[in-house]
Design brief:
By secondary structure, the chain is mostly helical. It has helices at residues 22-33, 66-70, 118-131, 133-136, 148-169, 185-208, 213-244, 279-290, and strands at 2-5, 37-38, 60-64, 75-80, 91-95. Helices cover 42% and strands 7% of the residues. The radius of gyration is 31 Å and the shape is extended.
């Protein structure tokens, strides 16, 4: 599949009969040679310029070859207006791997696995498996005739071992309290109003060929309302934080505007050993190399 903001105009997908450039003709010839078909319907705009003096156009395009269509890789392809948000381009969306099924989160809790060391998880998992050895050992014994009940019990024990091992070593994933803490349902409602107003003005331009002055003003009003409302909410939240802060909190406020950058040290090669990758292994490698014990002093007695 090939998709993106192509910025190409051609009679196959554009509105009316635009004049094609030589580059566009070369692209179309290459696509035909490689058996690509376009998924956009002719004349359905994907770009509505902010400048109302310019006409909508079809420039966000998707092509698919025979293999992509046969494997259903373009399932539910559509032009999704709600994905435009504040852009003058409308989003394109489709479903990949339509035959796969989403796996539910059996634990109901999201864990942060980023900082978990594989060694720690394996050790915790081995302990949990040992606790359930009576239900899992039958899977390793030759000659056993396993019933559906045995398999279900083993599957449940294995799942439980995975869950408990993860819960032991992984911290619960928590959303950042600094990620727009002032955002609430009124902000969501304002975003919806902006999107509805923009959809209405786009629809009018597409159906009538010219913009509606009233709809343009309405969309601008909703956008300005959203801008000033979020600005006010941020200010109110900042004032509240300062008013409720303790003196010792003032020194931590500066950290909120600083980005957290990390420069991890690369693995350290050790002669005759595997490279040191963890923090503890790197510390040991540096100590062994830089802080070696002093040589024995000669016996002067």
């Amino acid at each position: 599949m090939i998709t993106g903001d192509a910025n190409l105009h051609h009679i196959r997908w554009s509105r009316g009969a635009p004049r094609s450039s030589s580059i566009t003709e070369e692209v179309v010839a290459w696509l035909d040679e490689h058996n690509f078909i376009i998924l956009n319907k002719k004349g359905i705009p994907t770009h509505f310029p902010h400048d109302t003096g310019k006409h909508p156009s079809v420039i966000d395009l998707t092509w698919a070859n025979v293999h992509a269509t046969q494997t259903d890789a373009t399932r539910d392809w559509a032009i999704e207006e709600k994905l435009a948000v504040g852009s003058d381009h409308i989003g394109l969306r489709w479903v990949l791997n339509s035959n796969s099924n989403e796996i539910d989160n059996l634990m109901g809790i999201r864990y942060n696995m980023k900082e978990v060391k594989s060694k720690d998880w394996i050790e915790a998992f081995d302990i949990e498996v040992e606790l359930r050895k009576d239900k899992l050992s039958i899977l390793l014994e030759d000659g056993n005739t396993l019933t559906h009940h045995d398999l279900d019990a083993a599957a449940e024990a294995l799942t439980d071992a995975l869950k408990q091992a993860t819960a032991k070593v992984a911290p619960v994933r928590k959303p950042s309290v600094r990620s727009k803490p002032w955002w609430d349902s009124s902000c969501n409602a304002a975003v919806n109003q902006v999107q509805q107003a923009k959809r209405a003005k786009r629809q009018h331009r597409m159906e009538n060929g010219f913009p509606s002055e009233w709809l343009e003003k309405s969309a601008k009003y909703e956008q300005n309302h959203f801008h000033w409302m979020t600005k006010w909410k941020k200010q109110q939240w900042a004032v509240q934080i300062v008013e409720e802060a303790h003196p010792e909190d003032m020194y931590s406020f500066r950290k909120w505007s600083k980005g957290g950058r990390q420069y991890p040290m690369p693995a350290i090669e050790c002669a005759g050993q595997t490279p040191a990758t963890t923090h503890a292994e790197k510390c040991k490698a540096l100590r062994d190399e830089l802080y070696q014990p002093p040589p024995a002093l000669p016996d002067e007695t």
